[in-house]
Amino acid sequence: MKRLPITPLVAAVPLAVVAVFVVGAQWLAPDATTQDIYTGVTPPGTDGHLFGTDQLGRDIWQLSIAGAGSAVIGPIVIAIGSMMLGLLLGTLAGYIGGGLDLVLSKYADLLLALPTTLIALVVAGLVDGGYWVTVLVLLVLFSPTDIRIARGAVMAQATRPYIESARVLQLSRTRIMFRHILPNVLPIALATMLLNVAFALVAMSALSFLGFGVGPGTPDWGRQLSDGRDLIGQNWGAVVVPGLLIIITAAAINLMGDWLQERFEQRGAQR
Q: Is the domain 19-270 a CATH 3.40.50.2300 member?
């Protein structure tokens, strides 16, 4: 009997919990943003608050459930957008080559040389952008890795016999790139996308911690860390709960991405 792989099962549990938080936050935590200034900061277990309350009297656990949406949706959009941009530009650079390849490669090298979080911080500050401006900036800054991965995978596929056969049949460049090569590159891109979700989650949380991204009072794990750092002596849950959620979610996504990448590499080697 074939044993089920442990890694995806371990990673799937916290990811499933976070997915439930994102989808069902309005039912699981309907009073997340309700303030009670008379209650103020309370330690875990006070008056039915599992992890206590913050300085505004908001329940830490409910606030963490409600904050899953802004903490996770943005990074997912960043990773998907980066993957699509990387696949498009990387496929063009890898197959067409020449001057286009040179320009796109230099573009990718330039962005890779820049500190992602610092550039996002500067741009978001200059344009006074909100959550989605931060997402857009990080999407562009994450794309060079996907471009280089897609470019390398396309160049490896372009020398395969089935591509030579397609050229002999005089199929168009567009059809060869997007109907024949792209499906074979897509699995690698999907595995990289998952890893990018984890990196983007940490980057978005860091920017929220520094006061960019989500607005004040908006439920978000990074913002909770920022708001709760002065409360750790009164209520450790204000910092520990969102911090653990960020770490566990990012680690689970990384595990799943690494496992998928290994699986795709094994299948490629068997072929």
A: no
